[in-house]
Amino acid sequence: MVYMIIKLYKKKQLSKKQIVSYLMMIGIIVLVTIGFIISSPAIKEIVKTEVADIEGQGYTLTLKNHQLYVENSITKVISTLLEGPLLDMTCYDMNQDGKKELLVLTLNKESSKVKGRSFGRELQFYTLEVENELLTPYLIYKNDISSVNPFSLRAGKLEPGEAYTNIFVGVYKNTKYYKEVMNRPFFFSWNGEFIERKWTGSYLSHNELMDLVFVDLTGDGADEVAVLEKTPAGTYQVSLYKWLNFGFDYLTTSKQTYPQLGCLKLEKKGEQSKIKLQYSNGAEEEVDF
Asked: Any stretches that span the bilayer, and where are they (predicted)?
């Protein structure tokens, strides 16, 4: 537009006064546009919550803006549970003693962002104890896994009667036979002292892995994995896989596809489990297989 104004001025079709007026108008438009961009709300981070019942008291753990908070269900007091920024967290009874442990993936502040994403640094596992009505974490394990660019952390049990808890870590890297850097599913087993590799495959399907949750939908005492996948068409679907001896067997895919990226959320009521897709605006959509 500025080029056209200068061109008209050179052809003497505009006076200096008219040029100044047009340029001032353009300046105002630019300033208003910049102000709108700055004042526009950023995309909301998906808030993640977990509920842990410790010694008869309920506690709600909330991960928001990379900080982990805990709320006492009785006193309603909210406090910071862990210092330092976190990327992901989950709670699971890893030691099978009826008490949930806390698993966190710390934020790697030094990692360069790829495609607008952040990655983790350390896996940290904590036991949770109640002291003076305050939930207190005690570190039992940590491992720096920043070299594989971890971005997601989940826990479950892939085999019925298995003594070990299985840990899923979503990583962003290449593999021995596939050189393209992309999201990969890594599974580990917790033996009570440290994690061991269970299955560090290249992919579950040729669709891109975006998120994953453990869920026992078949009722056999072992978890399937529900995987949020990005299709070549750019839409999203949820596929279900079952651990079978030395790998995963495909079971089914959601009846519909979803136009936007969300986060998988497991909702349990009694013996029934539901998988929902949670979006950054707080909306949720149940996944139907």
From this structure: 20-38
Tell me the DSSP string of 153-211.
EEEE-SSTT-SSEEEEEEEEE--SS--S-EEEEEEEEE-SSSEEEEEE-S-SSSSEEEE
**Burial of residue 162, with CB atoms counted within 10 A of its CB: 0-12 exposed, 13-18 middle, 19 or more buried:** middle
What is the C-alpha separation between 84 and 115, in angstroms, rounded?
24
| Predicted model pTM | 0.81
The beta strand positions in 27-76, using DSSP E, are 48-54, 57-64, 67-72
Indicate whether 282 and 178 sit together in one domain: no
pLDDT 10s digits, 149-172: 999 999 999 998 888 899 999 999
Asked if 183 and 121 touch (Cβ cutoff 8 Å), the reply is no
pLDDT reported for residue 53: 86
Q: How far apart are CA 158 and CA 171, in angstroms?
A: 19
Q: Provide the pLDDT for residue 78.
A: 93
Verify that 153 and 183 share a domain, yes or no.
yes
Residue 40, in any domain of the structure: no
Its domain, for residue 145, covers: 46-203
pLDDT tens digits, one per residue of 121-131: 999 999 999 98
**Is residue 215 a contact partner of residue 223, using CB atoms and an 8 Å limit?**
yes
For 54, the 3-state DSSP assignment is strand
Q: Give yes or no: residues 171 and 283 share one domain.
A: no
